[in-house]
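Task card 7
Instruction: Convert sequence to structure tokens.
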Amino acid sequence: MQRTVLKSKIAYAVLTDANLYYEGSIGIDHDIMDQANIIPNEQVQVVNVNNGERLVTYAIPMERGSMKFVLNGPAARKGLSGDEIVIISYIGVQDGDVFDPIIIDLKHD
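Output:
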């Protein structure tokens, strides 16, 4: 049996912008994407710490070192600049396999 488990989590990223008139997605600093082992266009879940909203979208790389986190398209309605978010990616593993997730805490580390 295959199970879906946590692959990586970027905790307490701060939204830097929201662009309503865009195809959709979340832009993430490419350096942070690399650290979290998230590839361009990978499905991610975004949880807004400030308002409790959750959404599923895909990741697009932003400028390296920019610390930019941008909600695009309809997802832009789910958060405001300054909101803290958690970005989560998952992986399928075979039952019994152990997977150690990558946790990046941008607030406390």
